[in-house]
Amino acid sequence: MVGVGAWVLSAALLYAAVLVKLVQQWGTDPTYSHGFLVPPIALFLAWQERDRLRDAPSRPSALGLVLLAVSLGLYVIGSLGAELFVTRVSLIGVVAGTVLYVFGWNHLRLVAFPLAFLVFMIPLPAIVFDRATVSLQLVASRMGEDLLRAANVPVLRDGNILTLPTITLEVNDACSGIRSLMALLSVAALVGHFSDGARWKRASLAFAALPIAIGLNGVRIAATGLAASQFGPAAASGAIHTASGWLVFVLALGAVWALQKTLGSNAARAAHARLGTV
Amino acid sequence: MKHRRGSSPWLTRTHPAEQFSFRLQWVVERMAVCADVQAHTQLLACSLRIFERRPCEELCSGTSLPLNSNRPSRKATMLTQRHFVAAMTGLALAATLGATASAEGRRNDGSRHRGSHEDSSQFVSAPACSVPHDGHVQFVNDRSPFRGSSRGAYGHIFFAGGGTTVPSGNSSQRSVTGASPSTGAPGTPSPTPPGRPGGPAMPVHGGDDPPGLSVGGHGDGDGPDGPAGHGDNGLVTGGSGTGGTASRVSALAVNPEPASLLLVGTGLGTILLARRRARKQRP
User: Are B161 and A36 an interchain contact pair (Cβ–Cβ within 8 Å)?
Assistant: First the structure.
């Protein structure tokens, strides 16, 4: 117990500045405000494994020390280079390395998902985030343009600007879909974790969140343009418009859920077929 | 073969030097017994292990070296290694902390150093570049060349929405007109009421034109309309079709997404509800 306390204290001292900045960013950046939810969820997931953790044989591995050293090295490099992402990621590596070094592979395997889930709390590096945002903006604009054309609405696109007869729509950073993409990725990972079935199915469920989120964001932009062209610019603003992002996210959740059911029912059917009970 | 602590002849010799000489003697005796090369190799390895106080289970013809009672167990050996490794971890941690503190100190020293220079510097100090807290790229005047302003990045140039229509009288050089027959004069406001699009716009490129002013073509609302002509070095203006004036009354709308906290919260709520429902359905 004393050792655990000493470890927590030293880690807290080492990462105090990093954690304070991280929490500040969650509070100020709406794209990463879900970071407040991630650590409690990860703790809950680890707590769910408490019985198996207790029963698992403890076989400490010296590889944990290597992981610990590499993570601490990353921390030093990140601190010297003022790179927040690296220093933040090193915290997860330190925790994983400690678990491996003190308890062994069995325990690390049990807490692997909660630890991996902590990645969702870490904001992406600015260079990656900006590039992803710009790409998503363009993809969403293009999709919106195509869908509006398909609906016989004349539209002219210039980059991320959609010019309609009644309104000019700007697909800006906030509506690139990056927020719903990250939120849907984390939720889909959770759904995959809780669902039964093969590992590849659960992983594919998480990765399916990517096209679903991007596609539905394009649909949202097209729907906004369509509403504006049919009912006037007022339809593209106000409470309905603000709620559209949330509604589309609920739709995306439904799509993930339907996919999970399909994969689950396929797995059940295959199991029944193997047993000859169909 | 295991030897109990009390019955082992090794334990009668408590002094380390005495024990060592006895072991060496034992090895030499065994070497005389074992004739084959393999046994010699094993014996050599084993004798080396004696110096290291490592376990040596078998020796030549299946005889065991009675070191069980004195040598550390496998677990204990691992523990010793772990202690060493733990000490190394502590050192690494200390080095990490030291390096970080040193870097921090150097940074502070540097800023102090700069500060002292600022007091006596003959150069005018310019405001330092400020980096936004969220780490995103900040464009000059908060205007992204990609994202555009209220009418798009180059909306004032390319689109009629910008209203940068140029009267034909201003055109000092050859102008490029749209592909379709135009009925309206360039720059003339369209008589068509807003909201009636003049058909999909087709860009007209005047890339081969000599430098000069290019004016977009004007359609009559039935055919494709050319929104802009592009001169190589000349001014580029947007053309307004007879039915395409709606953009002049357009308003820019942004499509905000809710905060990710709300989105993930919704997802969590859905998962909880679904799990509760699944539990209730189970017998």
Answer: no
